Amino acid sequence: MNLVIDIALTHVRFRVRQTLVAVAGVATGVGFSIVMAALMEGSQADFTRQLIDALPHITVTDERRQAPQQPAEAVYDAVEMHGLTPEERRRGIKNPMAIMASLEAWVPGAVAPATKTQALIRYASRDVAASVQGIDPHREPRVSMLASQMRRGSLASLYRANNAIILGTRLAEKIGARIGSNITVQTTDGATLNAQVVGLFRSGVRSVDESTGYVLVKTAQILAQQTGLVNEIRVRVADPMTAQSVAQRIERETGYKSVSWQEAHEDLLSAFVVRNIIMYTVVGAILLVASFGTYNIISTITHEKTRDIAIMKSLGLREASVRRIFVLEALLIGLIGALAGWLLGYALTRALGTIEIKNPMIDATRLPLVYSFLHYGVAAVVALGSSLIAGYFPARKASRVFPVDIIRGAT
Amino acid sequence: MRQAQVAGRPQSNSAAQPLIAASRVTRILPGVVPTTLVHDIDLTIGARQYVAITGPSGSGKSSLLYLLGLLDLPTVGEVRISGRATAHMNEAERAQIRLSTLGFIFQFHFLLPEFSALENVTLPMQALGELPAEAMRERGRSLLASLGLADHAAKRPDQLSGGQRQRVAVARALANDPPVILADEPTGSLDSKSSEQVFQILRDLVDQRGKTVIAVTHDLDMARRMDRRIVLQDGSIVSDEAKAS
Description:
The structure holds 2 protein chains of 2 kinds.
Chain A: H1 2-14, H2 16-54, E1 58-61, H3 71-75, H4 96-106, E2 109-123, E3 126-135, H5 140-143, E4 150-152, E5 164-168, H6 169-175, E6 182-187, E7 192-201, H7 206-209, E8 212-216, H8 217-223, E9 232-237, H9 243-254, E10 258-260, H10 261-264, H11 266-304, H12 306-315, H13 319-353, E11 356-357, E12 365-366, H14 373-399, H15 403-410
Parallel strand pairs in A: 3-8, 5-7
Antiparallel strand pairs in A: 1-9, 1-10, 2-3, 2-6, 2-9, 4-7, 5-8, 6-7, 11-12
Helix pairs in contact in A: 1-13, 2-11, 2-13, 2-14, 11-13, 11-14, 12-15, 13-14
Chain B: E1 20-29, E2 35-45, E3 50-54, H1 61-68, E4 76-81, E5 84-85, H2 91-101, E6 102-105, H3 117-128, H4 133-146, H5 162-173, E7 180-184, H6 192-209, E8 212-216, H7 220-224, E9 228-233, E10 236-242
Helix pairs in contact in B: 3-4, 3-5, 5-6
């Protein structure tokens, strides 16, 4: 084996230019695949974080996942019934405080009530349809990021005035309202309320920022014309990734529709699958192209070394040893290339991390990047694997050289 | 010269058993028009012989040498090395015999260009793997010194003259102390002085080290000075005579 290593190292060392070209090919493949993975996963993680932060992890509403069974359906074993009027139910979650107390006993996180209603917000002759949400300013910071999303005022500002309201920045811009502006909120049921703008928030999700207002729970109940109405329980769990299973258990125990952030953004999350397929295809293609470079170099070396291979075989070197020499050379190129690629990938990722993205809509921010050992490991393994395959075929061809044919040709 | 010995291989001292025996060996190159390289060769070569294979160009001299050295396989017939039949051996078994029992010297030195003279000499020893690294280097240096190349051990082939390269090739052929040295036109690319030097080295291998040297040569004068002269024509032996003592 020492002989094989000696010869392989000597070939690689004496063909500096060729070796460097091959190493550069592998390094570029590894480096760029690391950068791409860091960028793609970084943006995905950032986007997911925004999704998670935009809403409570779990929202329990007063809806049922399936329409309630009609009493007639329970009594009659009929194939089909016509003319049944759906059972009317009182809006809101029954015994919300009891349910919240029960959830607080086992949910690893926090729970808060909310009263949600649809309304028209009117200011200076401008009307905008919005979702007005009644919240508890003490509990809300434990279930959502609203407190940190405040741009003007705070959640406690809701206590400062009668019928105080916090608006999304875009919504406020739309109607031209500012802090202190008195706006009118009118529900579809005709309830009207004069409210004072006491704060502005920005979640970063456009649809939320241009159509949401927050008031106290009791204010929302006045708007909904139903005392004690709580039609939403917001839950934040310690580990956002467990939200789905916690939501399922809540739904099982309470009977109310319980939607996790994953379910709420199912369409977006499924888009990540497609995105990841694209990413891995591109990364695979980069490494594949790099392996062609290695194949080319090893082919060239074996071609140039045909006479030497014949001599080594005539001296008694076995086919397997000859094969090992060139496979080892390819692996050496792959290994050095992978190490250089790690450095290149790290340097490029750091460089990308310094780029500032200035968007008037958001605060100055940098590209979201993820540094993961997995990216480095996978890129190196794929590079070594492709180098191994790229080296094996020319090596196998080289090992099958028939010494006499070469010696005869040389003499 | 130092009599270096590597353990674990057949020695050539048996007088009864020829070192190399070819029986009815024919080699035909396949093709649209098959070419017969050698035809119906019967030959035995014993220990301590300095054998010349000679004949006109295209007579099959080198082809016969390659067959005797197991570099090529006969189409018909068989070559036995130290009594061992080789016809049904696989590539690895033949490689092992070449490594341990046969030493090759070619017309062009065929040294590996990236390696020093010493590394070229130790290469067959490393492939055989019977000696520790330091012992290999010691033996390599000793072989080079015995051929007058003590000061050139660290030089690469392109830093040596033609005669020096061929002497390194001789040292390499002797690396594993094989009983048989096969030389294909060993002096063909050398000037007369270097040719004589290499001839004498091969002579000493037979006389002082007890080796058998089988050399293909065009040089009739050189062939006449060898112990035995086999003349080929059109792939067949036309004459096989020992030197008159």
